[in-house]
Design goal:
Strand order of the largest sheet: 4-3-6-7-5
Structural class: alpha+beta
Oligomer: single chain
Protein name: Thioredoxin domain-containing protein
Organism: Candidatus Colwellbacteria bacterium CG10_big_fil_rev_8_21_14_0_10_41_28
InterPro entries: Thioredoxin-like_fold, Thioredoxin-like_sf, Thioredoxin_domain
Number of domains: 1
Number of strands: 7
Family: Belongs to the thioredoxin family. DsbA subfamily.
Keywords: Membrane, Transmembrane, Transmembrane helix
Strand content: 5-15%
Helix content: 40-55%
Radius of gyration: 18 Å
CATH topology: Glutaredoxin
């Protein structure tokens, strides 16, 4: 049984999660995966082309185009999508918080900075009961997710106290909203929180998402981790 000093903070955090969850659900903070027969809505988005984003990231244009045109990363992106669904993702953005002890908690949607900060504080304080409320908010627990390795696109350290794996779609406006929130979190918790980006393009509603995802993998190959994040920041308007 936990010490009493944790009960009040835990209750506060849980209440915060529930309030944020209600706001999130009412405001429609994510895209869901459409069914096979569903005609899903789409939104016009002003996005750079993969080539434009690659040039901003500083990789050679000719080398990028050769990589991109080869389609060599199509299977890699498809693998990420399968992993996202296996992990419990039903829309974007879908994230998983991993504690130092290896416990995993789902975070669904583009939660606001204050809510994400509360979640981080609960995780750092070892508030497992509070974090467990995320399962209910997300509609279930984390499924069979691929482990985080040095091969992932990571902002921060693999040795961080908390790792947040985000499954994201480059054309999703809610992902674009969540992107600066995660950037702020990683910067504020310097060294304590790491951010992993994995691909989750919802192709049935976002025609530009997969090309941008495959392009980001080429950029990572040609320019490394920093170039990947420069590409990603640019696509999301950062």
């Amino acid at each position: 049984m936990k010490d009493n000093q944790y009960l009040i903070p835990g209750a506060i955090v849980v209440a915060g999660f529930l309030i944020a969850g209600a706001v999130f659900m009412s405001s429609g903070g994510s895209y869901t995966i459409p069914t096979a027969n569903e005609v899903a809505p789409t939104e016009e988005a002003t996005l750079p082309t993969p080539v434009e984003a690659a040039e901003v990231a500083g990789v050679d244009k000719d080398e990028f185009e050769a990589c991109f045109d080869s389609g060599k990363y199509a299977d890699e992106v498809t693998k990420d999508v399968s992993d996202a669904i296996a992990a419990g993702g039903t829309g974007t953005p879908y994230s998983v918080l991993i504690t130092k002890s290896g416990n995993q908690y789902p975070i669904s949607g583009a939660l606001p900075y204050t809510t994400v900060k509360a979640i981080i504080e609960a995780a750092l304080a070892g508030e497992e009961e509070a974090l467990a409320s995320l399962d209910a908010q997300a509609g279930g627990s984390v499924g069979d997710m691929a482990p985080v390795t040095a091969e992932d696109h990571i902002r921060g350290s693999l040795d961080a106290d908390i790792i947040i794996v985000e499954y994201s779609d480059f054309e999703c406006p809610f992902c674009a909203r969540f992107h600066p929130t995660m950037g702020q979190i990683v910067n504020e918790y310097d060294g304590k929180v790491a951010w992993v980006y994995r691909q989750f393009p919802l192709e049935q509603i976002h025609a530009k998402a997969r090309p941008l995802a495959e392009g980001s993998e080429c950029v990572a190959e040609l320019g490394g981790n920093d170039a990947f994040w420069a590409y990603t920041d640019y696509v999301f308007g950062g």
